[in-house]
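hiii, so i know i said id send this last week but things got crazy w the move. better late than never?? heres the sequnce for the chain we talked about at the cafe, plus the structure i predicted for it. fair warning i was half asleep when i ran it
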Amino acid sequence: MATIGDVARRAGVSQSTVSYALSGKRPISEETRRRIERAIDELGYRPHAGARALATARTDVIGLMAPLRTGVDVHVIMQFVAGVVTGASRSGYDVLLLTQDEGVLDRVTSSSMVDALVVMDVENDDKRLPALERSRQPAVLIGLPADPHGLSCVDLDFARAGAVAARRLIDAGHRAIALVGSPVEVVSRHTSYAERMTRGFVGACEAAGVTYLVVPTAASAAGAAASVDRVLGMMPEVTALVVHNEVALPHVISRFREAGRGVPEQVSVVAVCPEDVAVSMPVPVTSVDIPAEAIGRIAVEMLTGLMADPARGEVRLVSPRLTERGSVREVSAPSGGTVTGDPAAATP
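okay and structure toks below
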């Protein structure tokens, strides 16, 4: 492997001159720069990453905190990760994936491991925020806490997504609607997206005066079956569902079919999920699509902007887009309606 000394000898200059050419710390003549670049190409020299980081105070690495906590859907998490990796690669950065939670943030922010951070699985009152605010590395959150602490955030506007999904069913004439939501573990952690989703759904139902029910659902076949049984027991007149649980979605549809309620003949469904999940169902599902990869790329775009100008902090919420796929049946709507709901379930 070629060394910086080999490059210096081939170019006929000192090692310090090669170092200046690589770091840009001091001006050198154009002729000397061309000789050094030609020597680098001929020898196939690659600067040592650690030495480059010491010389430039940069690592060209973005840290991605994606803690794999209970209740998270790894398939969806990896779509966000793919977006971050793609955006980072386009901007000349590598990505260090951090899947643990305890102690990792302090270790990363107190060292020179990364130039900046993207932080996922954000809670309403996230304990990581004060440390991120103090950190010398800029950070972008994928998620929206109750108080962003001045940090930059990007996410789908889940409150509007919940409202859009509910209103699609209300506009179709449905007056008894259940939200099959995130797992109990996600809800109990007060994860931001789950609470915003529920708030938007409940707000739309109450504004329209329709009966609603919110049921946290384990991300499994058994969890989906239990939630469907609960919905049918508490709201036997249900004719429509909003499902915000990618893993449970196919099992929810299957359980309703077993109960003699097919989709969309007897039960209409709107999902809030990535597009590939919605189109992979036996009955393609009308959905508010979660553009996970796009949000990951936006996070990196915001991050590179922050590295250039730390005063560019912002909150960016992506507007929800509903795609029709035929899982909503239009029904005749009776006048008026009654809000019964399940207050305990409706408030995570």
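btw The longest helix spans residues 74-90. thought thatd interest u
miss u guys!!
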